[in-house]
Amino acid sequence: MKNIFTIAKNDRYNPSLALLRTLLAMYVVLFHLIPRYAFYGHDVQVPLMLEFGLLRLLQSSAETNPAVLAFITLSGYCIHRNGLRHSDYNVRAFVLRRAFRIMPLLVIGTLLGWLVFAALNDDLRIIAITNTANISLSAAIYKLSGLFAFIPYQFEQLLHQANSPLITCIVELWLYAFYILAMPLMQRMGQKLFMVLLLAITVLGAIAYNLWPAITSWWHNGSFFGFVLYWWLGALAVDPGNKLFKPLIAYLLAFIALTVVLTMWPNILLLVEIRKILLALLVAILLRKTETLNLRGVNYSMFNASFSLYALHMPLICLALYFGLNLYVALLLIMLVAYISYVCIERPLINWGQDRTTANYINVVY
């Protein structure tokens, strides 16, 4: 049966994907950095007004940060463009590569968050900006296990643990696990029915968080069920023959129209998820278009540090604020530490994982 697991792999390194990941990571960093500097009394009025404007436009219903949603879609695209196929179903290689790519930074990011919080929590503002009252080993284990991705048990109370952005990365590990299981599932039920099932999960989730608003934050920020459709839209975009990703103008106009409506009436049932679907489709179309860009003459190695940038920025923001660093100095510090982390930790571990698996994977796709 023909589906996305039967199409050819694309093992060509695409530097524009690394650039796009870095731009998305920088959006998230600034999204967290600016209001916290304002909370500490720094003069960031202009960027703060711009951020509030973007919140009003793109997150009027307190939904997923658009950069995070784009990250999820990008993840599905990058994983599948050179991922598993019927003709090359090497689960061991896939698991090892994902583990060495993600797990070390999750552990380091968690430990760094703990250490910074323990050292600085004499300043009550640190407690406020991390949404963390105290560090708990049981809460950290619960967070790292990823069980919260399926059960919203005390999501807001337990999951921040001084470095809340890691929540997204942990959910992503479960998306990888589902990816392994999806090929036999899709083979049995067909690709269209598979995607309809994911759409049905999204619709049911939208109904659920409208009936029980207490789970809204979990659905948009830490739910496997809330992310799975958007990840698979990215994976689906790898197929160059898929007509779902053709009508760019129609999707863009619909997205703009829904943004206007949701700005005025932010809680209309299902429209929030429809706008998220449209954004994921637009991101997927952009990803497909990057494949035709000729950027091989440009050195994009500095943009490979986007994961470290995302995983480590929150504790570094706390350090910068505690020691009174200028916002722009803080931003440079975060970028520098992220690059050092990539060169000294990420890249060697990625290479180590590659050396222990089959050789037919691209150097760094994601």
Class based on secondary structure composition and strand pairing: mainly alpha
Shape: globular
Q: What percent of the residues sit in helical stretches (DSSP H or I)?
A: 55-70%
Q: Spans of 5+ residues with little confidence (pLDDT < 50)?
A: 359-366
Give a short summary of the structure.
This protein is mostly helical. The protein has 15 helices and no strands. It has one domain (15-355).
Written description of the protein model:
This protein has helices spanning 15-39, 45-58, 66-81, 91-120, 124-130, 137-145, 155-158, 166-189, 191-211, 216-221, 224-236, 248-264, 271-290, 306-322, 327-355. The chain is built from 15 helices and no strands. It is globular, with a radius of gyration of 20 Å. The protein has one domain. The two termini are 28 Å apart. The chain is mostly helical and 366 residues long. The relative contact order is 0.18. Helix content is 69%, strand content 0%.
Which structural traits does this protein have?
globular, 15 helices, disordered C terminus, 366 residues, mainly alpha
